[in-house]
Amino acid sequence: MSLPTHLQAWITARLDSERGASLVEYALLLALIAMVCIAAVTALGETTSTSFSEAVSELG
Question: C-alpha distances in angstroms, 30 versus 24, 25, 27, 40, 58?
Fold first, then answer.
């Protein structure tokens, strides 16, 4: 196999690889999960804080 043919085969194999696409998909999925977790913690934190504040004011 000559060098240009070998180089062309190597480049074609790298361009046809879907490993990079999978990595991007996993990164986007991870970012979406992180945003959902942050939103849930923020919403629950405010609700919990309000509940504790009300309980403390009723006790004391």
Answer: 10, 9, 5, 15, 42
